[in-house]
Amino acid sequence: MAKKIFDAKKLAVKYDEALTSKPSKFARKEILAQADELIAAEGATVEVNKTAISQLDVSFLPSLHGIMTNTYSVIDSEVRRLMRSSQSSGLDNFQSRHLGTLTRSLCQLAQLEMGIREQNELEYMPDDKLQELADRAFKKLKTNLDSVKE
After folding, report:
1. Which residues are within 8 A (CB) of 59 and not within 5 positions of it... i.e. 6 or more apart?
2. Inter-residue contact 91 to 82 (CB < 8 Å)
3. Distance between CA atoms of residues 46 and 41, nearest Å
């Protein structure tokens, strides 16, 4: 048996009064205010999404491509700034360490990008080639485990 959500009869009377021969602005505001109060009172008795927080688990995964593009942009702008600084006055100790950090970050980012490309290659690789690579990896893992046991 369905629950009764709201009683529209109370509201219909108020709106019917508002629609009769052009009431004054004050009367319309009063009627609409009363209708809003009735809607709020009726809505307070209806349970809506009381357990939605426990039922929903929403997660957001950022775009890896966007993150990498932004990181490349930041590294590029910082390296350009350091280049301008080195041409005018040379790099001090802090700036040269900063350049080293940027270079390491660039290398790590390039390695990450290569890893992602390799994973994408695995997804589109034919099954027989994939089976051959898995066999090689399994044999290598087995020999490494055997050498650790001895």
Report:
1. none
2. yes
3. 9
Distance of CA 69 to the CA centre of its chain: 16
Residue 31: name the closest of 17, 20, 43 by CA: 17
Alpha-carbon span 37 to 63, nearest angstrom: 45
How far apart (Å, rounded) are the C-alpha atoms in residues 46 and 3?
9
Question: What residue segments make up the domains of the chain, in order of their start?
Answer: 8-41, 64-128
Query: What three-state secondary structure class fits 75?
Result: helix
Q: Dihedral of CA 120/126/129/134: which sign?
A: positive
- Over residues 9-65, the pLDDT tens digits come to 555 545 454 455 666 788 788 888 888 888 888 777 777 666 666 666 666 777 778
